[in-house]
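Here is the promised in-class demo. Please do not try to memorize the tokens; focus on the logic of going from shape to residues.
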């Protein structure tokens, strides 16, 4: 299989007065696993359907490799799509579901006469070899004789993947293919899918609303909101350097906390005042905050970067204690998501279950100053030096 690049150049899609995708530009490298992630209605599936040829872009250009495909029919784009509902033919056995697309492509144009019997037999042999090779790869050889109704959800998903893989396309397009599976099977299939894509090296564009799925699968992640691309980067880049408050609160579980903070001067340097506590900042943050002394900014901190005196790492650069009131405790076995009230604002701390806290009590917490994020309160954009 030869992987191809995929490019969207200023692509817009309108449905009447509704702009589903707005000036979308994204370059996907050959063999890359790109995940489009965002809430329902953000335009990610529309992007996938335009690439497949199921929707026509209103404006802009789409390329597969160096070929512009705006006017190319879906069947001639050489991409394979895996749908959320599997889209298997219920009356065909697994073998025929997998082989169907190959038969259409390989036998297209052959006139069924006796003079073509030898050629047709050779084609059937190649198809059979390919189907069985892919079935072995996905460990569904024993299911080839079954009908889709005789399969579990996970088995149906593997058949849908096999049908896509067997065609050896230039790109895989996957529209929330794991959302119908239960949590345990989804985790297992996700790991198998990642290993399979790395093995095949085929360019893959994967759509999901599940940010955990995006983080674990993607070589890079494209975060969308209201039809607009918000940020593109590796999972680490998107998590540790979010471009704006939407990305910061959408990526990560629990989401990043945002607090209003007053920029003040302390010992001749900028600092952040949250309620009665004043937090020193690192030099990189100080450069950004210097022109904003006297103004308000949004301060972000992830739940994993909030500590008590008992849980704080010995070498961490921590703030002075903030006195928070415990509002709600959500147990998760070895850890608790603790909802806290700090000066009228609510934040979540992810603390060890060994930290003894009860609702309504005061809990002193400390913030890891190295992992503070700053955002403009008007635009929501990240503030960086």
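The designed amino acids, position by position:
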């Amino acid at each position: 299989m030869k992987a191809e690049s995929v490019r969207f150049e200023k692509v817009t899609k309108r449905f009447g007065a509704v702009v589903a995708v707005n000036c979308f530009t994204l370059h996907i490298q050959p063999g890359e696993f790109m995940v489009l992630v965002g809430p329902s209605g953000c335009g990610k599936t529309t992007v996938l359907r335009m690439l497949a040829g199921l929707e026509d872009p209103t404006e802009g250009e789409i390329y597969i490799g160096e070929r512009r495909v705006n006017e190319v029919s879906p069947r001639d784009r050489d991409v394979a799509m895996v749908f959320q509902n599997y889209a298997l033919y219920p009356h065909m056995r697994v073998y025929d579901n997998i082989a169907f697309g190959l038969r259409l492509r390989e036998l297209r144009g052959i006139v069924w006469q006796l003079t073509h019997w030898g050629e047709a037999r050779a084609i059937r042999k190649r198809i059979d070899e390919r189907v069985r090779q892919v079935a072995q790869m996905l460990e569904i050889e024993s299911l080839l004789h079954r009908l889709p109704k005789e399969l579990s959800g996970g088995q149906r998903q593997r058949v849908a993947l096999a049908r896509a893989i067997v065609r050896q396309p230039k790109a895989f397009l996957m529209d929330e293919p794991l959302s119908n599976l239960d949590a345990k099977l989804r985790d297992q299939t996700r790991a198998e899918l990642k290993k399979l894509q790395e093995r095949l090296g085929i360019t893959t564009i994967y759509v999901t609303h599940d940010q955990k799925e995006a983080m674990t699968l993607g070589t890079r992640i494209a975060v969308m909101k209201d039809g607009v691309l918000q940020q593109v980067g590796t999972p680490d880049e998107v998590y540790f350097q979010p471009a704006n408050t939407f990305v910061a609160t959408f990526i990560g579980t629990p989401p990043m906390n945002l607090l209003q903070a007053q920029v003040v001067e302390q010992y001749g340097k900028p600092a952040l005042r949250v309620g009665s506590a004043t937090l020193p900042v690192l030099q990189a943050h100080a450069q950004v905050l210097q022109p904003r002394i006297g103004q308000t900014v949004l301060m972000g901190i992830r739940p994993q970067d909030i500590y008590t005196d008992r849980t704080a790492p010995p070498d961490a650069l921590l703030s002075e204690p903030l006195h928070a009131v415990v509002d709600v405790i959500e147990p998760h076995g070895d850890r608790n998501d603790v909802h806290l009230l700090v000066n009228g604002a609510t934040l979540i701390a992810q603390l060890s279950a060994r930290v003894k806290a009860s609702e309504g009590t005061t809990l002193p917490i400390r913030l890891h100053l190295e992992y503070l994020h700053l955002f403009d309160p008007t635009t929501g954009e990240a503030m960086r030096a």
